[in-house]
Design brief:
Layout (H helix, E strand, L loop, with lengths): L4 E2 L14 H11 L3 E4 L12 H5 L7 E2 L2 E10 L11 H4 L4 E5 L10 H14 L4 E2 L11 H10 L3 E5 L10 H15 L3 E4 L12 H9 L12 H10 L12
Helix pairs in contact: 4-5, 5-6
Length: 246
């Protein structure tokens, strides 16, 4: 499978990443990406930027090194209610919002609590994607959550970093998640979760996993820029006129 969009990348602003936005854009261009999302960690993650970092993304150009830039965030899931740690007036200005569990912010509980939390995040309609769900520290009922995501047009991320050892025990879980998504018609997105520029656009493990489960291309929103942009517009985002030729 060919993926031309990376929907999960970090810059040095995240506090534990090591490249600038310009360096990430250069790497994206070298990989032949059409678009990538810049998704630094939201403020409750230790070391992350102030909310102004996200509010001010409107100043970013729409293209760097010939690659389209989508303004985004990896928000932290905060509680059972499904709150995230960025004010709605800011997330509504962004193009792309991932919501993820992170141990320093949401203390792992049990499968029932994690399941209810994710369902509430989905139903809030404040996020486009659920990030790195394969993490075994946050077990959940796959069928319940993925079916709910499909119902509410929230995509499931298959995270290359998780498949490369950053979250031990994720590999088999990601495969099962992909299989459930395939079965219930949920759509997925592909994210490198790059914390260094060289990893931007690296989907090696993602591609292998999706081929293994024979995942349908039409359920992958990152195989063509127009498919991805149509997804955003279907979710109520304003059309990004600078990308009209893509």
């Amino acid at each position: 499978m060919q993926f031309v969009i990376d929907t999960h990348t970090h810059t040095i602003s995240s506090g534990h990443a090591y490249s600038t936005l310009l360096e990430n854009a250069q790497a994206a261009a070298r990989k032949g990406l059409a678009l990538f999302c810049t998704t630094d960690h939201a403020p409750t993650m230790p070391g992350s930027p102030h909310f102004w970092h996200f509010a001010n993304q409107r100043i970013l150009p729409r293209f760097l090194h010939g690659v389209g830039i989508l303004r985004g965030v990896e928000a932290n899931i905060l509680n059972l209610v499904g709150d995230i740690d960025l004010d709605q007036r800011i997330t509504e200005q962004l193009d792309w919002v991932i919501a993820s569990f992170h141990e320093p912010v949401y203390r792992p509980a049990d499968s029932r609590a994690h399941t209810q939390t994710l369902v509430n995040v989905i139903r809030s309609q404040r996020v486009h994607a659920l990030g790195h769900l394969g993490n075994p520290n946050f077990d959940f009922d796959f069928e319940t959550v993925i079916s709910e995501a499909a119902k509410h047009n929230v995509v499931i991320e298959i995270n290359n970093s998780s498949l490369s050892g950053s979250r031990k025990g994720s590999e088999s879980r990601c495969e099962e998640i992909a299989a459930f998504a395939k079965e219930c018609g949920a759509r997925i997105t592909t994210g490198s979760d790059a914390h260094f520029a060289y990893d931007v656009g690296n989907f090696n493990q993602v591609g292998q996993l999706l081929e293994k489960v024979a995942f349908p291309l039409d359920q992958v929103i990152t195989h063509h820029p127009r498919v991805f942009l149509n997804f955003l517009e279907d979710r109520g985002q304003q059309k990004i006129t600078e990308f009209s030729s893509l």
